[in-house]
Structures are given as structure tokens and as C-alpha cells.
């Protein structure tokens, strides 16, 4: 069923016809201009402090972060984390061009397949599109090179993120998505799915007892590549 057919059925159910021209113009103007909401002052920081805030908020929400100086160090950081967690050196890798170009061969004990995740996968390595400092949140839009299943099925998720992709507020992350992504079918920017991930999956629904891994990964680890000179910690 097309979008027009669905919206038409909703209008009939509400006993409402098409919107008047003035209301339609107002709504289209709002969609076109992307008005800002209130942006918290805590994210309006110099770049080094902004990245530090992101790391602090990730760790506050039970995630972990390892910072590396260059992308070439990512395979070593992944191997180190798996060893620290006593996990097998085996994972499913996002079929992403940037991740594929990393020097995985330098860590021959690592075993991986580049594909979407399956229920039997225990560790996934995902490509981070962007991140929001104010809450320590990852933005992970679905894409053939960034399968959403990698965010949900494995018990341990590792996300490779460039420091240059960290922004202060949510509005800036959406700006980046609009600017960099165009859907070939609709011509719009919206992917099928955008996941905003803050820490590992957790729930306290039962007796107010925190349970990690309730609806997705039990562990969330970020390998943060310091590719932005302006964001390096101040000496």
C-alpha cells in the first residue's frame, strides 16, 4: 500500500479532507527549515571537552571506550578488548568500505565475516555514523554497509567511531545525516531506520533490578579514532 493510500485511509477514518492551503504551507515550511529546539548548554564546549563529555556520558551509561591515535590501530584495539572480556577472537563485521580497508591481517588470530548479523553471532563490529556528546549517544542509520542487525543480535557490540563524527547536540547529528545521505529511491535523506544507542541494552522493569542485555547487546564498546586534531586532549 502506498503512502498516499495509507494517509487517505487515515483521513477517511478521521472524517477529514485534505488540509487547507494555509495549514499545508505552514507544515511544509516547518519540514523544510528544520527548526531548532532548546539545545542544552552542556554540549556547547570546545572540541576537546566535547569529546571528553561524550566519553564520560558513554561510561556513565555502562559503555566503555578505547581511544586510538589512528585507524590502523583499530584491529589491535578490537583484539585487546576481546581478550580482556575473555571472548573468542571471532566476530561479524559491518560490510563497510572504511572497515574493510583496516589492516586486519596484522592480527591473524582475529576471525570475521563481513555481513549482516545472525542470532548465533556473539560479537559484532559496527561502523559509527555519528555521535552526540550531550548524552553519549551513537547515531546508527541503517544502510547496506551498516546493517541494523549488528546493533541488536550480538551480545557484544563494538562500534568504530571517528572523533570527527562527534557533535554536540542531536540537531547537529540530524544536519549531518541530511547533508551526507540521499536515498536513491525517494531522493530524501531518511533511511529505513535510525537507531540512537546510549549504552548497552538494559531494563529495570522487573522489581527495579537493572538487567543488562534485556533487548540487545549486553556490552557496548566504542573504539574511538582520534582523527580530529582539534579534538585531541589538551596537554
From TrEMBL:
Residues 53-225 form the LUD domain. InterPro entries: FTHF_cligase-like_sf, LUD_dom, NagB/RpiA_transferase-like. Coiled coil: none annotated. Transmembrane segments: none annotated. It holds the Pfam family LUD_dom. SUPFAM superfamilies: NagB/RpiA/CoA transferase-like. This is LUD domain-containing protein.
